[in-house]
Every structure is written in C-alpha cells, then in structure tokens.
Amino acid sequence: MNDAELIENLKKYNQTRTLKILKNIDKLNRDKMVEQLKEIDFVQLKDLYKNISEEAKVNVGELKPIKSLNPDKMDKEEKEKYEEIGEDVIKNKKFAVATMSGGQGTRLGFKGPKGTFKIDVEPEPKYLFEIIVDTLQRANKKYNTIIPWYIMTSPENNDQIVSFMEKHNYFGYNKEFVGFFEQGELPLITEDGQIMFDENCNIEKASDGNGSIFKSMYIKGVLEDMKEKGIEWVYIGSIDNVLLKMVDPLLMGVAIKEGSQIATRSIFKNCPTERIGSLCIQDGKVKVIEYSELPKDMIEAKDANGEILFGESHVMCNLFSMKALEKISLQTLQYHKAHKKYSYMDENCKMFIPDKPNAYKFEYFIFDSFEFFDQISIVRGKREEDFAPIKNKEGVDSPETARKLYNDYWRKQNGRV
To answer: Which of 99, 206, 314, 385 is a good FRET partner for 138, with 20 to 30 A between their CA atoms?
Structure first.
C-alpha cells in the first residue's frame, strides 16, 4: 500500500481524526504513523466497529444443560482404563503442554508478566512459572519422558518472560523442550470507531485474548513443530491457576475413548450466582454462556437431584487433539468487546486523558472453538484439587485464596492432614 492508497483508505473508513493528526504532526512522527497504518487491516477495523453496536445475542430458550463424567462415580477399574489410555500417549512422547501467559499482573497490583508473580506457598514461596515446572517435572519423572512445553507470551511481555526464564535457568527444566511464541494484537478503537495513538505516536493495541492461541500457533510455526515431534494431544491452560492439572491422563483417556477431539475439566458452581461461565448445549453444540447472559430463572434452576441445572463451568482446563488445533487455526472466532479507559492523541496531537470508559478492546475466547465440533468430552473436576486461580489483588480468586487451596492440597497429598 502506498501513501496515496493509505489516505484513500483512511477517508473510506472514516478515520477523520487520524487524517487531521497526519496534517498537524511533524514529518518524522508522520512517517512513523504512516508505516504503522499501512499494516492495519481496514476491513477488520470495520468489523470491530460493527461489533461495538451489536449486543451479544443469546437465545436462552434453546439452551440445554450439559452432562459431565464425574470421576467420583466411576469404579476403580473404569477409571484405571481411562488413565492407562492417557498414560500411553504421554509415555510415547505424543503429548505437549501450552501455557497462556500473555497477561500482566495489573489486577494484582504487580508490575510485570503474571507468570513472574511469586506466591507465598509452603514450604517456600514460588513463582507461577516455577509451579508449572514443578507439575511438569513430576510428570516427566513418573512417565520417564520430557514433555515439550510451549509458552504463549504477548508483544508486551515476551522479552521480559524470556529474560526471566533464562535468569532462573528455566527452574531446572530442559530448555531444549521449551518454546516461546507471541499471541496477536488487535487495535483499540474509540466509541466512534477511530484508531487511537499513544504519546509515542504508536497505534494503541491490546493482546487479542486467549482464543488467539490457535492462529498464533499456526502463524508462529508451533503447530508444525509439534507435528514434527509426533505430538497428538496438547493441553492448553492459563498461567494463573496454581492447581492446574496440565498432565491429565484421565481427561485424555476419556476423550480418546469417547472419540472426542476436545476435552475439558469443568468445575461445578459453588452457588447459582457464582460469576463464572456455564457450559451448555445450544443447537447441538457446546457453548459457554456468561453468567450475565443467563436470566435469573435459569441461573437458579435445579434438576431432579437438587443440583444447579447450569452448574458445569468452564475454567480454562482444555485438551485438544492436533487435528482439532489444525482445524481451529484456520477458523475465525467471534470478537468479544470490553469497554475500557484509554488515553489517546487528539487531532491537535495532544494527549486526552479520559475520566470514564471511552474505548474498546477486542478479544477472542478459547471456548468459542468448541462450536466447530459435534462433541467434546467433559470431566468434572474439584475446586479443591483443580482450581485455585489468581485474578484479583484481594478477596475472591486472590493470592490469599490460591495460597490456602494450594497448601491444603499438598498437605493432603503428602499425608499431613
């Protein structure tokens, strides 16, 4: 795209503020902006703006509760058969793990990538990346293997994470089996659809959500690397759950036995009003419906056994076959928007500081991939064994709650309870 074509695109897509900035700014910064603008996908920009005015449409009348397998209701022989199937995959080096760590610790009041946050667990404090390594090393020892580990970073924190891991010598993990790849970004836009620039004349962008991992794996060559290694199954989890079962032979065995391409561990809701997405069936497909999208009568509905009808919750504990990852990487997931406060350069090249949400960021969510498949396998996990997230500085899902869950779990495992 040459300069003249760029200007025509800016006019065509009504980027009036950018056109004024380009007229008012000095040549050096103008040239810098122009080069960045040439990389903008204006058709995508139009789709993002269209998304602002469209509310999420959920036909709740079509929603049905979903069924899961509860390990507590399996007999010992059945459970062991599932586990043997999964263990065979791990032992034969056909399994890999991917950790999503593109986020910062902002909500924790922590400056830096969330994976470099240290939590005060027993017997000594550990970084979140260190806890992941502990989990992998235990599995490596148990199954006599070295599991390939792929870490998804973001343009914002990639250099920090790579430097951190090198400084700590990968916490003893064989670095030949560790790979890094960056997730993508999407531009931020104002409420009237305008591109935003920061004080350094850079287009303001934000990481495009956990659902971007599929396309990022494809673009960055991760899927090809996995195929060359003979990988058939990949567990994808987030960095901030200190009880995450990344090496889960039971879940894998269930998926293989049931002929599913995707499997997930669910957590059952503590109470009907817990603000967590519910796994449901809609038009024969598995969907995750946010708490805010369900009407009160469906939130509080119970089944014949008195259980919450829509109680199975998605908590980012997902297993994918390589075939599934390849298929999803070629699909376009839907956008999800978030209304946020962002400073930006006005048409007079001065920074505008908002006092209320004034712009939108856009993300893809990993669970939107489920709809491309006829079925997924769901195994019900336990909060005290599988789910101890660190999201907030204090209160629910904070370092304090995660620390207690982590310590209680390992005391029990080590026979100290």
So the answer is: 314
